[in-house]
Structure formats: C-alpha cells, structure tokens
Amino acid sequence: MSRLPDLVRDSQLDTQVRPEYTRHLYVETDPTSGQRAIEKKEYWKREKRIGSGGIGIVWLEKCFRGKRNAELRAVKQFPRPAKTRDLVRELEALAKFSHPKYVRCFVQSFGWYEDEDDLYIAMEYLPLGDLNNYLKAAGPVPELEVQQVVFQLLEGLSNILICSLPPQNWWVKLADFGISKRVEDCTTGPSTKKGTAGFVPPEFHGFTPSGEDTASDPPFSADIWALGEITFRMLTKSVTFQSSYDLFQFTEGRQTFPIASLEEKRVSMPAIEFVRACMRPSAGDRLTAPEAMAYEWMSAFVARSPIPHSVVSFGYSIIAIAIYFFSLTFDQR
C-alpha cells in the first residue's frame, strides 16, 4: 500500500491471519511492574457471517485468549482495492471517529490489518444489527422514537453533540466510512455517486428538474434525501416512491409528493413537512443538516429536554455512510 497518513498507519494492527484464528500482537507499558514494554497477544476466532455488501463481508468474531478491548467484535473483510484512495479515506475516518468524544455517534474501530489477498477492519459489535434489517422485521416505528433516531443521525452528519437529551429508547451509530468526506475537502457537488437503491436522490438516477446541472449541487444534499427516505420508511414501513418512473414524475413536477402513506399512519404535519423538505426534487432546495436540526419537528423534540443544551461543533462532516444502509448499526435499550 502507498504512503499512509500517520493516523491510518498508527491504527494498523500487527497481525497474523490463520485459517483457524487471527492473532494480534501489542506492545504495551505496565506501570505496575515498572516494565517499559510488554508484548501481549490476542486471539480471535470467527463465529459467523453477519452481513455483506457489494464487495465485502462482515464477520462476528470472538476473542478466546488475551481479551483486550471486547469479547466480541465485527470484522469487515474485503479484497484489496486497485485504488487505495477510498480505502485510506475509510480507515482515516474510522480512526478519527473512534476517539472517545465521538463514541456516541460513530461505531468504534479497534484497528485494521491485512493478509496477502484481503483487508480487514475490526469494529465494535452491536448485537441488534443494522437499522435496515430491524425495519424489515418490525412494524412502523412510533413517531417519537423516529424523532430520536433522526436526531441522532443529524447529530452524526453535522457533528453537533447535544449533551442533554430526553430519555431515549434508541441509540443509533454511523458506520462504514468508505465514501466519507471531510467538510473541508468538499465545496460543491454531490456528496457521492454511490448509494443503495431506494435511498439515492433523483439526480443519481439522472432525473433533475428542468435539466438542472448537478455539478452545482450543494454538498451532502444526497444524504439529506436519504435521511428523508429513512424517516418515511420508519414511519410507514413502506418506500416513498414505488418505482423509478414515480420518482421521475415527481422530479418533473408531474406528481405530488406521496404523503398518503404518512397520513394513513396519522403522522403529524410537522413530521410530514420535515420529510418533504428533506426530499425536495431539487438538491439545492433540500434542508442542510443544521437546518434540519432546527426544523420544527426536530426543534420540538429537543425542546422536550428539561436540561439546557451544550452544543459543540467538531468541524467535520460525514456523508453517505450508513445513511445508505451499508452499516447503520444501533442499540435499542
């Protein structure tokens, strides 16, 4: 692999991959014994496959000797890419957002390693899996709980941490940073041209109102569209647009936004307006993450917290990651 950023290089694990187990070697200091450097070994055994994507597989692994961080972990395995740009970006984002101050919003990485054919990323394991699979199995989610999830997604997208929140049943974390981007790296243009079918905006299908030029689309507008789709599906357990043709008709102004499913579930008007504002046909007309956080439906949720909020901006923005359900993990308390 070509020259790596220091953050990525420092997160690489000294590893031996064998068919029956994976072994990591760590060098640590032991202040109790006064030893400056002690070698410690950690052994992991693959338990089962828990997910897959376009080119990768996610495994559940269990530590059977020398436990250091956790007894269980998720390991993403994928072939070595011909180009390392996206890989380095993913590894750098994982290392960055594994810092304790980001742990509320992002899945923690324990490091990465490689063998002759593949690359592996060891990550925090959340036993309830990803949000997409949960929604397939469950019915529509109560609106208050949807607000909790959407708020946490916006928290991750805008990197604004609200220190005091109402009691919550959901804890959502973003993961899979293969197409992430720092906000200072992005000026204009779509956040990514990648995404999962059903969650990508009309411009990714080549549908634009009156032939708009997508080169001037605001950054991260695709993520806001996907956020609207997630919100719609959680509230209704149905997709927003039944076909690409319906999406095209909506983009061209020949079909109104399909609010009937939301109304049938007695979703509040502020929630309906929030979804519509996230899924406007023109990318430039959609909410930004800060605007979405301040929108009536979200601000009403935040206002229910009895304790004043302390807001901290981290200066980074993560786009398109698990919003596209590559790996949107969660824990429901």
UniProtKB/TrEMBL annotation:
<keyword id="KW-0808">Transferase</keyword>
<dbReference type="InterPro" id="IPR000719">
    <property type="entry name" value="Prot_kinase_dom"/>
</dbReference>
<comment type="similarity">
    <text>Belongs to the protein kinase superfamily. STE Ser/Thr protein kinase family. MAP kinase kinase subfamily.</text>
</comment>
<keyword id="KW-0067">ATP-binding</keyword>
<keyword id="KW-1133">Transmembrane helix</keyword>
<feature type="transmembrane region" description="Helical">
    <location>
        <begin position="311"/>
        <end position="330"/>
    </location>
</feature>
<keyword id="KW-0812">Transmembrane</keyword>
<dbReference type="GO" id="GO:0005524">
    <property type="term" value="F:ATP binding"/>
</dbReference>
<dbReference type="GO" id="GO:0004708">
    <property type="term" value="F:MAP kinase kinase activity"/>
</dbReference>
<protein>
    <recommendedName>
        <fullName>mitogen-activated protein kinase kinase</fullName>
        <ecNumber>2.7.12.2</ecNumber>
    </recommendedName>
</protein>
<keyword id="KW-0547">Nucleotide-binding</keyword>
<dbReference type="InterPro" id="IPR011009">
    <property type="entry name" value="Kinase-like_dom_sf"/>
</dbReference>
<keyword id="KW-0418">Kinase</keyword>
<feature type="domain" description="Protein kinase">
    <location>
        <begin position="44"/>
        <end position="298"/>
    </location>
</feature>
<dbReference type="Pfam" id="PF00069">
    <property type="entry name" value="Pkinase"/>
</dbReference>
<keyword id="KW-0472">Membrane</keyword>
